[in-house]
Amino acid sequence: MLAIRNGKGRRARLAALGAYAxxxxxxxxxIESMVDTSDEWIVSRTGIRERRIAxxxxxASDLAALAAEAALARAGxxxxxxxxxxxxxxxxxxxxPATATVAAERIGAVNxxxxxxxxxxxxxxxxxxxxxxxxESGLAGSVLLVGSEALSRHVDWTDRTTCVLFGDGxxxxxxxxxxxxxxxGFLGFExxxxxxxxxxxxxxxGGSRRPLGPGVDPSEAKIEMNGREVFKFATRRFVDSVxxxxxxxxxxxxxxxxxxxxxxxxxxxxxxxxxxxxxxSRVFGNLERYGNTSAASIPLAxxxxxxxxxxxxxxxxxLTAFGAGLxxxxxxxxxxxxxxx
Length: 341
Known about the structure:
- The protein is of the alpha+beta class.
- A hairpin with a 3-residue loop joins strand 13 and strand 14 (327-334).
- The N and C termini lie far apart (39 Å).
- It has nine helices and 14 strands.
- 50% of the residues are buried.
- It has helices at 28-32, 39-46, 60-75, 99-107, 123-136, 227-249, 266-276, 287-290, 297-307, and strands at 2-4, 11-20, 24-27, 50-53, 84-88, 113-117, 142-150, 168-178, 186-193, 201-202, 224-225, 258-261, 316-323, 327-334.
- The chain has a five-stranded mixed β-sheet, sandwiched between helices.
């Protein structure tokens, strides 16, 4: 799906960002003591040096609530004024109810519709597209997006090919309505999915196809990945999705102030950056400190970019992701924050 804004009317404004990372840091040295691997092997193949791990009493909704509160505080906004709360997660608290409903209750979003969105690591981009559509159609005045993951709960710590990759965390964005004369907002989206690769990255058991119970090994409820196929898919879609959207928008890569790709693997990011021809000074990443936090990775990176003076009001952002499904997504949006008084 390639969607470019047409016509006039109210605009969806990227108004605030917030994030939360669990306190516990798991280094590569700790993983070395668990499986046959090394810090050198992990860094050379992934770029990851450490990741955050949620506390035993922290679920995805707890992380989501803290990130959501940080975004609302940044804008000086009240949770009671949020019209829709969407939590993008591949590690929900429960099969049902939605993690978003639990998070909404915790932060006091008493007037919000709340639901979950599952699109793997592309979740935040899918959520941004929904927020933009809800606001610009007039169905909502404010949408709070939260990518929240407690993926460590689904990691097989005896599988060295996957346990080195994933971490926990949450990132949020507040999208609000504004006048087209005042803000640029989202310029367009390029979203897609290829279900033929669904089994290349999945948790096999725990759903309706293979419910947990007698005869099902609990280890089947852990992440499994065909690394070679996922790598090939990600490198291809990274470049293709970005190129397609920029061409339709008639934008040059040189007009982008900051590229923030999904933080999955440093080799994938470097490949995409080289093929797109964007200078590394206009690319932001934090993979080495957080690992792959799936739907939380882009908002976590955006907050770090803002706090490290790499993201400024008015910057034109290029955001792109790829993940389980297999899914992909890209957007171009101007960062136009509303700061608390």
